[in-house]
Amino acid sequence: MSFAPVYGPRSRALILGSWPSPKSWDMGFYYGHPQNRFWPLLAGLTGAPAPAREDIAAKRQLILQHGLALWDVLASCTIEGASDASIRDAVPEDIGFLLARAPIEAVFCNGAAAYKLYVKYMQPVSGIAAVRLPSTSPANAAWTMARLREAWGAALAPYLAKNEAK
After folding, report:
1. Which UniProt keywords apply (predicted)?
2. Percent helix, strand and coil across the chain, each rounded to 5?
3. What is the DSSP secondary structure assignment for residue 118, as one 8-state letter?
4. Alpha carbon of 66 to those of 20, 42, 76, 133, 158: distances in Å?
5. Which of 57, 59, 72, 61 lies closest to 14 in space, CA to CA?
6. Which of 4, 35, 108, 136 is the most buried (most CB within 10 A)?
7. Is the pTM of this model over 0.85?
């Protein structure tokens, strides 16, 4: 099974990955690869300090303080290393579980694989169209941090601002 979802009563925007990388499994939390830009990107967009790589509590706090939720599309799969292209035997998470517990209004997918898997397995249940964002993975070298900031910032801004105003 994958990691438990991170969500709270103010979580209105859900960010979905596909499946944890081997480095994330080693760390025991989402986006554990030291070169993955997810945590520095999210910190920059929210104005929060970037959490230390090992500080899972600070990462959870960053998600929850800004009205976000974090999860993966898949509960289990067969995968070679961290290659999303090799995913087989996909079993999706129960999105209904999360939607019954958090007021999710928008879904954002971190990369093409998460988007494709969400559309196939979760969107028919959630009824929420997802926004495909460029992957924060170090394998997505074509996207600089500045370009990621622009794309992710434009997409998440309405939800971050909405939650900061409360």
Report:
1. Glycosidase, Hydrolase
2. 40, 20, 40
3. I
4. 22, 10, 28, 18, 11
5. 72
6. 136
7. yes
